[in-house]
Design goal:
The complex is a heterodimer.
Chain A lengths: L3 E4 L2 E4 L5 E7 L5 E8 L3 E10 L2 E4 L6 E7 L2 E6 L8 E8 L9 E2 L3 E5 L1
Chain B lengths: L2 E4 L4 E4 L4 E8 L5 E7 L6 E7 L4 E4 L2 E6 L4 E6 L8 E9 L6 E4 L3 E6 L1
Parallel strand pairs in B: 2-11
Antiparallel strand pairs in B: 1-3, 3-8, 4-5, 4-9, 6-7, 7-8, 9-10, 9-11
The chains are: A mainly beta, B mainly beta.
Amino acid sequence: DAGITQSPRHKVTETGTPVTLRCHQTENHRYMYWYRQDPGHGLRLIHYSYGVKDTDKGEVSDGYSVSRSKTEDFLLTLESATSSQTSVYFCATGPGLATVDTQYFGPGTRLTVL
Amino acid sequence: SQKIEQNSEALNIQEGKTATLTCNYTNYSPAYLQWYRQDPGRGPVFLLLIRENEKEKRKERLKVTFDTTLKQSLFHITASQPADSATYLCALVKGTGTASKLTFGTGTRLQVTL
């Protein structure tokens, strides 16, 4: 998994509570991404980062925020979790642009919002 | 709207045969396309990247073609083995520079039987 860890790996929470997922990499990759994966939808990009403190929205960013204060850490926050945010969340990193470089994925976090 | 289609039905194939998976896209003009493998409960793993001017790319038993006229990529696994059983995802690169991102198809599950 190219030195990418995600925490927690599993989480069950209640509607309306804040949740923060952490992605940590040891590869010194510039680019980091948060995806969610749901049956019938595949992987969808939530937010991404192209450097420390540089982030941008992806396809399904509503209800999510991110922060990247260090190269190695990329946090995904659900300010007020909803049942529609029940999903498997994957972090990915990349040394270069998506046009020329692969992305390396973490093991995923399974989040259940009751 | 832009769409990536992969056969949602599982592909069942006998060991030793060639597996062929299809990725079709509409309303895209991607210059790059990537293929990933995903095993249950794990993050995707990069397999191959192909550029629009390459038409075909090989890596060991894997072969990818990219037909920008048909808007289609084919992914072949020759001499398939039970260990090749997994879900295979195609991903198209969208955008340029630091805004370049991957958009994934929903994947096709391959089952190789003895």
